[in-house]
Input
Amino acid sequence: MRVESDIYIDGQDALSAVLRYRKQGHSRWSEVPMEPLVNDRWWGEFELTQTGVYQYTLQAWVDPYKSWREVLTKKITAGQDVTLDRLTGAELIEKAAQHASGKARRLLGQFAVALRSDNTGGEDIVTDELAALMKKFPDRSREVSYDKVLSVEVDRKKAGFSAWYELFPRSCSGYPGKHGTLRDCETRLAYVASMGFDVLYLPPIHPIGHSFRKGKNNELSGNPDDVGSPWAIGSNEGGHKAIHPQLGTVEDFKRLIAKAKELGIEIALDIAFQCTPDHPYVKEHPEWFRKRPDGSIQYAENPPKKYQDIYPLDFETEHWQELWDELRSVFFFWCEQGMRLFRVDNPHTKPFPFWEWVIREVKAKYPDVLFLAEAFTRPKIMYRLAKLGFSQSYTYFAWRNTKAELTQYFTELTQTEVADFFRPNLWPNTPDILTEYLQTGGRPAFMTRLVLAATLGANYGIYGPAFESCENIPRERGSEEYLNSEKYEIRTWNFEDPASLREFIGRINRIRRANKALQNDRSLRFHDTDNEQLICFSKRTADRSNVILIVVNLDFRYTQSGWVNLTLEELGLNPTVPFQAHDLITDARYVWHGPRNYVALNPHTVPAHILRLGHEIPT
Amino acid sequence: MRVESDIYIDGQDALSAVLRYRKQGHSRWSEVPMEPLVNDRWWGEFELTQTGVYQYTLQAWVDPYKSWREVLTKKITAGQDVTLDRLTGAELIEKAAQHASGKARRLLGQFAVALRSDNTGGEDIVTDELAALMKKFPDRSREVSYDKVLSVEVDRKKAGFSAWYELFPRSCSGYPGKHGTLRDCETRLAYVASMGFDVLYLPPIHPIGHSFRKGKNNELSGNPDDVGSPWAIGSNEGGHKAIHPQLGTVEDFKRLIAKAKELGIEIALDIAFQCTPDHPYVKEHPEWFRKRPDGSIQYAENPPKKYQDIYPLDFETEHWQELWDELRSVFFFWCEQGMRLFRVDNPHTKPFPFWEWVIREVKAKYPDVLFLAEAFTRPKIMYRLAKLGFSQSYTYFAWRNTKAELTQYFTELTQTEVADFFRPNLWPNTPDILTEYLQTGGRPAFMTRLVLAATLGANYGIYGPAFESCENIPRERGSEEYLNSEKYEIRTWNFEDPASLREFIGRINRIRRANKALQNDRSLRFHDTDNEQLICFSKRTADRSNVILIVVNLDFRYTQSGWVNLTLEELGLNPTVPFQAHDLITDARYVWHGPRNYVALNPHTVPAHILRLGHEIPT
Output
C-alpha cells in the first residue's frame, strides 16, 4: 500500500514524517518512515498481509537534528567557522541521549563530547552512524498529525481476478422440457471447468411465486405449466432461505458447492431482495411492505411498466430494524451453507445505508465474502455502491462498442481515482442484455466481445450457454431481450455443438491464467492505431516480465489492417533491438522492429491478437 | 458565484435542493433553488455584491410532490388508471395547505378537493400553478444538509486587474548622485500615469540601518557615503512605522498618496518584516530575536550566504503574542495614513498562521486592503499563502520562456483549481531578477516579455525605469543581479530617452484598459501554431463581445512566420463568414477566413500582434 502526501512547512526547517498504520480493531499503530519525492511530495508504504480493513494516517515534525546537519554540511563545504554550530549540535545529541539507554546512550554521549571538544570542522563526527542513531530517538516535540484516519479494505484475490459463468440449473437436465436439478447442474461442472471459468453464478434458486407468474417471453398471463422467473422469489414452499423444490434440497446445494470446489470453481448466489405476493414475508410481516391508499400492498412500478408479481420491500418501514436483521440473516444462512460469493440484484433500488451496514456485518463474521453489484444505473450511484462496500460491479461495457467509447470508458475506470474503489466486472451479455452488436454481428461479434471483456477486465463473465452458442435472436426488433428467454422457460442446449465457441473461450481463459499481466486492471494502456476499427491496448506486470498486447478488429464484417504505434520503453522493450510478438491465440510468432508494426485481422477466422511481447520469450 | 454539486439518492425518489448563502457575520441564510444539469450534477448561483467573506452550503431533500407528479404524468401518458394516485396526491396537497395561509391555503384546498372528486385522469388539475404553489410549501421533512459551510472571499476590483510600476523614490531627484525625496517622486507621477499604470509600488521607505550596511553592488564593506538597501530596515531614526529622513516625512507620504490618487494611481507599500541590528526593536525587544549559543543575536543565514546586516524576527518566541500584535500595528499604522495595498516581502519565511491571522485582522478593520505575496518559493507554498489570504502572488513567469513552458504553466494557473484561490501577478523583471532572456535579447526581448506579461496576466508589473530603458547588464556572467543595482545605490535615469519603451508600454496599457477581455485570467486559451517560436492565445469576455487574440514571436533575433489554428466557435465567430482581425498595436486591419491564418512577426519592429477579432469591429 503506497501512500503519498504533500508535506511542507513555512521557513527553512527540515521535516521528517512517518506513515502510521494498523489493522482495524488493533490498538497499536505501526510506523514506517516516509521519504520525500519532488515538489514537497512524500511517500511511504506498508504491507497488506491479511484480508480486512487497515487504517492509516500520517505524522510529520520539524526535525531539529536534520535541519542542523543540513546547515552544518553547507557551512563545512563553504569552509566557514562552525564553532557555535557544534555547540548547538551537541545540545541536540545530549537531549536525544536522555531518551536512549545502554549502548546507544553511551555512543550518543561520546558523539556530543567529541563535538564539544573538537576544534576541526566536525565533519568526522557528524557521520551516518550518528544520523542513524539520532533517527532512533527523534525529537518529535513539534509534531503534527494528519487530521484524518483513512482506511483501505483488503479482499481476497478472487475480488481482483475472476472469470464468471452464469447458468440456469433448471436448463441442465439434458432432456427437452424437463426441469433440471442441482444434481443435473453438477454434471455440467466439468464443462464449465473445461472452459476455464472459476466462478459459476446461479440465478436465484428459491421457490418461485405463483400469483401473476409470467409466461414465456414475459407474457402477462402464463399457463399453469410455465416455470416462471427465478427472480420472482417466494411461495408457500418458502422464501429467501429455501430452495425451489424442483431444483432439490439444501443438501444438494452443499454437494454442488463441494463438487465445484474440486474443479476450482466457486459458486456465486444471486441475492434479489424482492418478494412475490406468495412469499411468506407477505403474510408474516405485512408491515415490511408499502401500502397503497386502498390498503393493498404496493407492487413494483416503473411507469408505464407494472410488475404485479413483485412486491418491493419497504426498507424505510417503521419496522426497518427487524426487516434489516432478517435480510442480514439471509446472507448468514447461505454463508453457513458454505457460500462466500454473492451477486446482488439491483442494489441501487435499496438504500445506501442498508448496504453499508449489511456488508460490514457480513464481512465482520465472514471476512472472505465478496459482493458483486448488479447496479445498471447512473455512474455516480454505481461508484457510491462500490465505495460503501461492494467488491465488484457490473459496468457499461456491454454498450461500449467503438474505439473511442472503449478508450474513454476504460481510461476512466482504470486510470483515474475510480480505480481506487471500483472493480469492474465486464459482461458482454446477460439474460437481460443481448446487445445490438451481438444481434447483428454473429459469431465474429461474440469472439470480439469475449476477447475485449477478458482482456480489458481482470474480472469478466458471460451468460452461457447462450454465449458460446452465439444465441442472438431478440424477442423483437429494438429489444435487448432474448427470444424465448431462459428467464421465463427451460431451455435445452447442445453442449456438443461443433460450432460452439467453447474451445475459443477455453483458450482465452487459459491465456488469462498463464499471464499475470491480464490479472490486473491498472496497467491498462491504449496505443494508437491508424484504423478506427482496430483497437490496441496493453497490460503488464509491475516488473514488466509479462507484457501482453491486445489488438482487436471491432468490425465484424470485414478484414481490417493498419499500423499500431507502441511506446516501447513503457512496455519494457529496447527500441533498438527487434522483439518477438507471440500470438497466444494462434501460437504464431512475429519478429517486430521498432514502435510501428502492421497488423491485419479477419473477423471470420480470429478477430484479435493477444500477443506476448519480449526480447526473449520462453517457447 | 456559481456552485455545482453532485446530488443523488438511492431509489426512484425525486429530489429538490437549495443553495444557502450569507455574508459572514450575518445570522440569516438566504436560499436559491438549485437545478439539475446532467449526470446527477446540480447547480445554483448567488450574487456577490459586497467585498468580504460570503458563506455557502447546500440542502437537499426527497420531494414527495415532485416524485408523485412524475409518476402520475407517466401513468396518464400511458393511459393507466390513477384513481389511487389521485388520493395520494390529495394527501400531499392537504399537508402543504396546513403550512400555508390566506389565498394559498384556499387554493391548495381547492386543488385537493378537485383531485379527490375528479373522475378523469387528473391532468387538468395537476397544473404548473399547483406545482409553483407546492414549491412554496415544500415538505422538507426528509432534508439533509451538506456537512460543510464553505466560503468565498470577495476583493475589490483592483485585486483582479492591475498594472504595477516599481520605482525607487531616492532615484527621483533628477540630479546624478543626489538623494531623491517623496516630493521628487511626486514629479514622476505624471510619467507613470502617461504609461497607463494604476499602481505605483515603492520599495521600503523606512530608515536604513548602518551596521554592516552593504556597499554598491552588494559589497560587504561599504563606504560611509553608501545609501544602503531599503530592505535593511531600522536605525536610530526609527523602524517600520518611520520614514527614512532623506525621503521626507509621513506628511510628504500622505501628500504623495493624494497626488497619485488624482492621477488614478494607487501607492503600494513594501512590508518586509526583518530588522537591521540598529532597529529600535533590537534594543527594546531583544526577546523577539533568536539567540546563538554565545548569547549574540542570530543574523540571517542561507549557507553559505550570511546576511549580518539582517536579524530575522523570531515568530515563535515565547513572546510571540506581543510581537505579532506589534506587526499587526505596522499594517494598521500605514492603513491610517491611507494605504490599502501592500506588497509583502518573502512571506514564505514567516509562519503560515501569522499571515492567516494578520490578514484576517487587517481586513476586518479595512476590508478593501489587498496583499501581494512576493513568495518566490516552491509551488505548494505559494498556493498555500494564496489560500490563507494573499490577494495576489508573484509567479514563475520571469523564467518561463518557451511556448511549452508558458502553455503548461498558464494552463495550470488559469484552467485548474489553482484559479479558484491564486491570482497571478506577472513581472518580467524586478530589482532582484534580470533574466537571461532579457540580458541576451535586448529591446525585442523587453517588448516580447512586456506583451506576454500584460496579456497572459490581468495583473502584471514592471520594475522601471530599468525596464523601459531596456537595462540589461548583469553584475557578472551567470547572475540575475543588475550591474550597479538600484538596490544599493542611487541611479539617475533619462526619462526622455527617445529609445525608451515608454510609448510602447503606454499603448499596451491603453489596450488593456479598453478591452475587458484582457481584464480576466480564466478565459485564457492557447491555440496551435505550426512554429515553435510563435505562441498564440486568446482571452474573451463571457458574452464574447470582446475577443482578443495575441500572437507573440518568442525569438528575439529573427522574423518568424507560420499558421495559427483557431477554434472559431469558441471565439464567438461564425466559421463560414470572414472576420476582421484588428491589430490594436499597429492599427492594421486584416480580413481573415476560416480557422487557419498566416502571421509573420519581426522582433526588430513589433514582435507581437494583439488582435481584436469580430465580424463587425467598431472603428
Observations:
- The radius of gyration of chain B is 31 Å.
- The mean pLDDT of chain B is 95.
